[in-house]
Amino acid sequence: MIWNKERETMPRKALRELQLEGLKWTVNRVWDHVPYYRAKMEAIGLKPKHIVSLDDLSKLPFMTKQDFRDNYPFNNFAVPKEQLIRIHASSGTTGKPTVVGYTRHDLDMWTELMARIVTQAGVTSDDIAQNCFTYGLFTGSFGLHYGMERIGAAIVPVSGGNTDKQLMLMEDFGTTALIATPFYALYLAERAAELGIDITKRLKLRVGLFGSEPWTEEMRTQIEQTLHLTATDNYGMSELIGPGVSGECECFCGMHIAEDHFLPETIDTETGEVLNVGEQGELVFTSLDKEALPVIRYRTKDISVLDDTPCACGRTHTRMRKISGRTDDMLIIRGINVFPSQIESALLGISGVGPYYQINIYRKNYLDELEVLVEFTDETLLDNFKKLDELTQTARERLYNVLGINVKLRLVEPHTLERTTQGKSKKVFDKRNDPQ
Ligand code: DLL
Q: Left, alpha or beta for 160 (phi > 0: left; psi -120 to 50: alpha)?
């Protein structure tokens, strides 16, 4: 089903006209109300009147996370405080968080976008949706919450953690839709097995809405096989709106971007040059009708590929491929680029290991070393050194074939690596700057 047929299936020509109108409106708004960005434009002699076509987008300076930090908390807002009705912040691990604000119009627009996302994932008003995203400053929980309410699904705001209780409620309420990070979804399945809950018999889950952290196709397969549901991906970031930027439809061929509200680009991370649709690069977004926090050419650091070929679902909005990594996630080990997602894909393709893993990077004698810890799944192997050794060799070779470098691979016992039950999971531990 399509939530907003008029908008989501809009002919491309009409969509481009709408985008141009939104772009001009946003640039004017920022020029008038956001001094730091006006200064960036003035520094290159650019005025709002120079933006006359969508091609002029590339003339505009980028925004980055640093701009949010420099203007903490409210100096990048384009409205006075009395017009704000919600403030969220991203989970900055160090220092001050990234603060984002919404007017009533912004919240309404966001809710509509979330209604699209959940509808295209296959959720209907008959569903009972359990929200395992932690409620608080994080945008994920509230975004999905209001989107579910808008379409008439029953939302259960359990929040993060409390896994045993989550499973109890899931069974008692007959939850059909699950909202979580992909790794928490996997943990729910593991915990259910530990508690002797037969998911096929006692739970009624049928669809999962997963996002907020990178996950591979191999991880999707694992989740679908263990939780017995259809796992869908959705993407977004606080700076732009929260979740609601893009989500998968029933065709599973990328995530449709809400192009009537956000203008996507991909750029070469090094040069900032705009890439052609179909080329892999860093995603950059411009908001088209946000009041409180207009965003121009925000560099997400997320790596993807845009695809504007027609989709069988009838939606006309450009799609983006699953995020393959972040520019700041990329590990350079002895001159070779390695993405954690490559490691995840390789490990999950080996029977007998995974899906829990951890990546450590050390510096030894001025050389970087990559260590991968992965759980083996069959506990009886503990008594079978030969088999364990063979499995280690297989996994090591597989990683070498995929990454092109030697990895120190360690198989660890099942249930030994940490399970993240709230928030995004951390899998990479860069210890290169730790004292040796
Ligand atoms: O994570 C928004 C969100 C919440 C999206 C719930 C989807 C579901 P932030 O905390 O600001 O916002 O983190 C944004 O998370 O730049 C990506 O690096 C990553 N991310 C979000 N969704 C996905 C996804 C929310 N589906 C950052 N796949 C983004 C891969 C994702 N990475």
A: beta
Residues sharing a CB contact under 8 Å with residue 213, sequence separation 6 or more, in sequence order: 181, 182, 183, 424, 425
Kindly give the residue spans of alpha helices, DSSP state H, lying in 163-303.
163-173, 182-194, 199-202, 217-227
CB within 8 Å of 325: residues ≥ 6 apart: 214, 303, 339, 340, 341
Please tell me the distance between residue 284's alpha carbon and the centre of ligand 1 in angstroms.
Answer: 14
182-194 and 217-227 are packed helices; what angle lies between their axes, rounded to 10 degrees? Answer: 30
- 69-73 contact pairs (CB < 8 A, 24+): 69/95, 69/96, 69/98, 70/36, 71/36, 72/96, 72/99, 73/99
Residue 363 β-bridge partners: 368
Q: What is the DSSP letter of 3?
A: S
* Rounded Cα gap, residues 305 and 48, in angstroms: 29
Q: From ligand 1's centre to the CA of 38, what distance in Å?
A: 28
Pairing of strands 128-131, 408-412: unpaired
Distance 44 CA to ligand 1 centre (A): 32
Q: Which residues neighbour 196 within 8 Å (Cβ) at sequence distance 6 or greater?
A: none
Our answer on whether the CB atom of 180 is closer than 6 Å to any ligand 1 atom is no
For ligand 1, the distance from its centroid to the CA atom of residue 235, given in whole angstroms, is 5
- What is the spatial distance between Cα 381 and Cα 387, in angstroms, rounded to a whole number? 7
**Is 210:185 a contact under the CB 8 Å cutoff?**
yes
Rg (CA), the chain: 23
pLDDT, tens digit (0-9, with 9 covering 90-100), for 203-253: 999 999 999 999 999 999 999 999 999 999 999 999 999 999 999 999 999
Token output for 337: 């680029």
pLDDT 10s digits, 72-108: 999 999 999 999 999 999 866 667 899 999 999 999 9
State which amino acid sits at residue 269.
T
Q: Which two tokens stand for residue 24?
A: 């001009």
71 CB-near residues (< 8 Å, 6+ apart): 36
Measured CA to CA, the distance from residue 420 to residue 435 in angstroms comes to: 27
CB of 282 closer than 6 angstroms to any ligand 1 atom: no
How many angstroms separate the CA atoms of 90 and 376, rounded?
34
| Residue matched to tokens 């699953």 | 322
Contact between residue 316 and residue 258 where contact means Cβ atoms under 8 Å apart: no
From the CB of 211, is ligand 1 less than 6 Å away? yes
The answer to whether the CB of 214 is under 6 A from ligand 1 is: yes
